[in-house]
Description:
It is a single chain. The protein is α+β, with helices and mostly antiparallel strands and 187 residues long. It contains 5 helices and 13 strands. The protein has a 6-stranded mixed sheet, with helices on both faces. A 3-stranded antiparallel sheet has the order 1-3-2, with no helix packed on it. The longest helix has 21 residues, at 42-62.
Amino acid sequence: MATATLRPRKKVWTDEELEALPKDGFKYELLDGELIMSPVHANHGMICIRLSSLLFNFVQRQKLGEVYDSSTGFRLSERVLLSPDIAFVSKARLKKILIAPDKFLYGAPDLAVEVLSPSDRLREVHRKLDRYFEYGARMAWWVDWKKEQIHIYTPDNIEALTRPADVLSGGEVLPGFKCRLSRIFRW
């Protein structure tokens, strides 16, 4: 299933226009002025829930900030509104980017997690990762559930975790968070 590009004309989308898009089960994002939608499959959702649960429990126990799901919009610029599959925002960053609870967050999360789906094109995923870092993200995880791999991106480095015993770490963004890949990709 290919990612669809809707209304390819270059325009500035207002928050109100984005919020008024159909509630049709698709996730809409704005990437460099283009509206894109990305439907996902069952395995994608299952991996998102597992990883979200692990992150949520850790963040709440440590009182580090908030974890958001894929329905949360991060307005990075007037031409970029992204909704990572999972996002973590520290307390300090939340004070800067949470304008109101009923508005999009205005800035990048500390950690953006993108779980690949069959409709994802690599070029588009890399554009998203570039935008997250351009607007202040400190880390991104790119999860390939088919290959059971996680790629950890920071502004200076890329690391690939490829074996079930490899340990996913939160680094400086989530100090103390550790999880073996086998806990995420257990079938």
